[in-house]
Write a structure and sequence with these properties.
Helices cover about 40% and strands about 15% of the residues. It contains 11 helices and 8 strands. The mean pLDDT is about 90.
Length: about 300
């Protein structure tokens, strides 16, 4: 009888220790996952405008909070110069070479193009915040354009991808120098793609198993991710224009985010949803139509008549 009791106690002891270890691994795994998401590897620049036959110049500017941003400025050809610049904002993580293929179409249409690395990405300094402080980077880009390239930036448009699209909306809401925004695959608020990732990872247990990740995410971000919310600000862009692009097969940022952004915006606004298209894949899947629509949008809303 005594041996049976000892065995039961031993099994309970082992089971309790196993559960403790399991819980520690779960919590530690969640924390490490989120911390690493705020410290992504620096992705090297893959190409430069010269690889596409475009002349350009290197640029650097400092944000109001002291971050050095690196950029390329591609001047328009004198023959068809609109004296307008389109700023291209990459996603997260990434760098200014990630969406360089959009530059030739904009350049052919007579636009100058500015492409820069968000903080903590590419060759820029600072720490990434997945949209919260990156608005300062875009504000600084528009300021640099107006001070350094006044003849090329009589009017400014922005095209942003994923996080870059969210940043473009939030920046334009407070910066009237931005006359039109194209937002491709942007989140409506930062908590939404975070919750989507948790559901994809933990399934129906996400509300419970995602608790450590949510707490860590909020701590690393420095605020509630619900407060990084382009959909609450997009209406402030009006009477300037916004064009929302998204794929309905996006598993990183739900197409419902695009619908929420569009519903929250005021006119003039446009919406283009691609069937069966994943995250920031509209340009790849529908390149000719994408270039035509984006160029037409910017010609309507930023080129001075």
């Amino acid at each position: 009888m005594a041996n049976v009791c000892i065995k039961r106690i031993r099994w309970r002891w082992l089971l309790s220790r196993f559960l403790v270890v399991l819980i520690l691994l779960w919590v530690l795994g969640d924390v490490i996952w989120v911390v690493l998401s705020f410290h992504p590897p620096r992705l090297p620049l893959q190409r430069s405008p010269a690889d596409l036959g475009l002349r350009y110049e290197e640029a650097n500017f400092i944000t109001e909070d002291g971050v050095r941003i690196t950029a390329w400025f591609i001047p328009a050809d004198e023959a068809n110069d609109t004296h307008c610049t389109v700023i291209v904002c990459h996603g997260y993580p990434g760098n200014r070479s990630r969406f360089i293929d959009i530059a030739p179409a904009l350049h052919r249409a007579g636009f100058s193009v500015l492409m820069f690395d968000f903080r903590g990405n590419g060759e820029s300094t600072g720490r990434p915040t997945i949209g919260r402080r990156e608005v300062n980077d875009l504000d600084s880009a528009t300021k640099w354009l107006r001070e350094s390239k006044p003849n090329s930036s009589r009017s400014i448009g922005v095209i942003g991808f994923s996080m870059g699209g969210a940043v473009a909306i939030m920046a334009a809401a407070r910066n009237e120098a931005i006359k039109a925004v194209v937002s491709d695959s942007a989140y409506a608020s930062l908590d939404r793609p975070a919750e989507l990732t948790l559901k994809r990872t933990f399934g129906f247990l996400a509300p419970i198993l995602g608790v450590p990740a949510r707490i860590t995410f909020r701590f690393m971000l420095g605020c509630d991710p619900k407060d990084v919310a382009p959909y609450r600000l997009v209406h402030l862009i009006s009477p300037r224009a916004v064009f929302i692009i998204h794929g309905d097969a996006d598993t990183k940022v739900s197409v419902e985010d695009a619908k929420l952004l569009y519903e929250s915006a005021r006119h003039p606004k446009e919406l283009w949803i691609g069937h069966g298209v994943g995250h920031v894949k509209m340009f790849v899947r529908h390149r000719d139509e994408y270039e035509r629509r984006v160029v037409s949008f910017f010609k309507r809303y930023i080129v001075m008549k």
